[in-house]
Design brief:
The complex is a heterodimer of chains A (269) and B (86). With 269 residues, chain A is an alpha/beta fold. Chain A is globular and about 65 Å long. Chain A starts with a strand and ends with a helix. A two-stranded antiparallel ribbon of chain B has the order 1-2. With 86 residues, chain B is an alpha+beta fold. Chain B contains three helices and two strands, in the order H-H-H-E-E. Classes of the chains: A alpha/beta (269), B alpha+beta (86). Chains A and B meet through helix 7, helix 10 and helix 13 of A and helix 1 and helix 2 of B.
Chain lengths: 269, 86
């Protein structure tokens, strides 16, 4: 049975799509057949982050409406074996995703894939609710910043009350905290909430901490999921995250400031 | 941290302010979530009734439902009246 993981946050711009792309790619790199589904109807962007924007022919809504089948619609990644993308539609019709339609597509994907990553849109509207409704696990992407933490808490409330698992009184969605854009230097200066602070407030287990990194923008500029840049701090932090998702114990890295030379210590910088 | 920072004033760090503010608002919002859906509407209705008689601002009323045990829930209503100097 496939595992459905929603990548969600409430707040926009915290790194949901970057994280979906990075985690999905990491899972495929570890040999698990994975599909990443873009739920952001009307604001499709996963294709751009994955570098397959020119290969989109059909989309999620076409499949729901029976205008195309999954085989025609899924985009196979050219770099990584076992990795597929289901692009969102660019329609402006807000009600394009129906619960029945989404369920049908997810059931069909579940026959073929080990992991289904649902890249949620921002907000708490229908699209975001649809992305989390069928989930078994949730990666809550949070920046160490007040509005993001508050919105994450809001989404945690939705996960425990508005999901299918909640409606059916099944085991709750397994929640994971993924802290992104983490800047240990600013944390050391007392200018940024620390991992411990955010964890204390949200009270869910930590799955990963991604340092603020040049590599993330470079990756999106070139349409490469950041996990393919295995030299980079962010790429490595995402690979650690994937390993933890798969149940391995991996120590956390990139949480503290790198040691500076004497001159830098005196003059700052 | 550079040497110069040691000479700067040691005012409260913003991260700890952020944490305190978040702890308060998140606790407040969780409390609200755990209550029944009708609570906000009930709060507005009660406010309207009171406003027929006394002019009070919207933030001067708070309604909460507390589950004391399996059989007992307590609806708590707090209204602060303004000072009337007539």
């Amino acid at each position: 049975m496939a595992k459905i993981i929603v990548v969600t946050s409430g707040k926009g711009g915290v790194g949901k799509t970057t994280s979906s792309a990075a985690i999905g790619t990491g899972l495929a790199l570890s040999g698990h057949k994975t599909v990443i589904v873009d739920f952001d109807i009307g604001l499709r962007n996963l294709d751009l982050i994955m570098g397959c924007e020119r290969r989109v022919v059909y989309d999620f809504v076409n499949v729901i409406n029976g205008e195309a089948n999954l085989k025609q619609t899924l985009i196979k990644d050219k770099r990584v074996e076992n990795l597929f993308i289901l692009p969102a539609s660019q329609t402006r019709d807000k009600d394009a995703l129906t619960k029945e339609g989404v369920e049908k597509v997810l059931n069909e994907l579940a026959k073929d894939f080990e992991f289904i990553i649902c890249d949620s849109p921002a907000g708490i509207e229908a699209g975001a609710m649809m992305a989390l409704y069928f989930a078994d696990e949730a990666v809550v992407v949070t920046n160490p910043e007040v509005s993001s933490v508050r919105d994450s808490d809001r989404i945690l409330g939705m996960l425990s009350s508005k999901s299918r698992r909640a409606e059916r009184n099944e085991d709750a969605i397994k929640e994971h905290l993924l802290l992104t854009r983490y800047n240990p230097e600013r944390v050391a200066k007392g200018e940024m909430l620390s991992v411990e602070d955010v964890q204390e407030i949200l009270a869910i287990p930590l799955i990963g901490v991604i340092p603020e990194s040049q590599a993330v923008l470079n990756a999106s500029n070139s349409g490469q999921p950041v996990t393919l840049d295995q030299e980079s701090d962010a790429g490595q932090a995402y690979l650690d995250t994937v390993s933890r998702l798969l149940g391995n114990h991996v120590d956390f890295r990139f949480l503290t400031v790198e040691k500076k030379g004497l001159l830098k210590r005196i003059f700052g910088g | 941290m550079s040497l110069l920072d040691y000479f700067r004033s040691t005012k409260k760090k913003t991260a700890s302010t952020a944490k305190e503010r978040l702890q308060i608002i998140v606790a407040h919002e969780r409390n609200r979530r755990s209550g029944p859906d009708y609570l906000p509407q009930l709060e507005r209705d009660i406010l309207e009734v009171i406003r027929k008689y006394v002019d009070i601002p919207a933030d001067q009323i708070s309604v909460s439902l507390e589950q004391r045990s399996d059989e007992l829930s307590v609806l708590e209503l707090n209204v602060s009246f303004p000072d009337e100097k007539r």
